[in-house]
Design brief:
One of its GO terms (biological process) is mRNA splicing, via spliceosome. This protein is an all-alpha fold and 93 residues long. It contains 5 helices and no strands.
Length: 93
């Protein structure tokens, strides 16, 4: 009985985490969705750490505000969607 309850409790906690924090992985997550989530999390981490923004700004010889803006803009569309089958066929011909 306790194993059944523990299993239910673990799944309930996992479902709660998925609802509370979007982007946490699940079994049906595709390659594109996973990569998008990783890129968004990385950019959000850059924006949230002032020292990291300063480091990137020095490396790119840009103001910190510009680096923050670029990170925020890259969070909108972090990676391009993979080409569909029809698009790949058009490119090959």
């Amino acid at each position: 009985m306790s194993q059944v309850y523990e299993g239910f409790n673990i799944h309930a906690q996992l479902d709660h985490l998925h609802m509370r924090y979007p982007g946490t992985g699940h079994a049906d997550m595709g390659r594109y969705e996973w990569a998008t989530t990783i890129h968004r999390d990385t950019m959000a981490s850059h924006v949230g750490h002032q020292s990291r923004l300063a480091y990137i700004a020095i490396c790119e010889n840009e103001p910190i505000a510009r680096v923050r803006y670029n990170c925020l803009m890259s969070m909108l569309h972090p990676i391009t969607r993979p080409a569909t089958k029809e698009e790949r066929e058009k490119m090959e011909n």
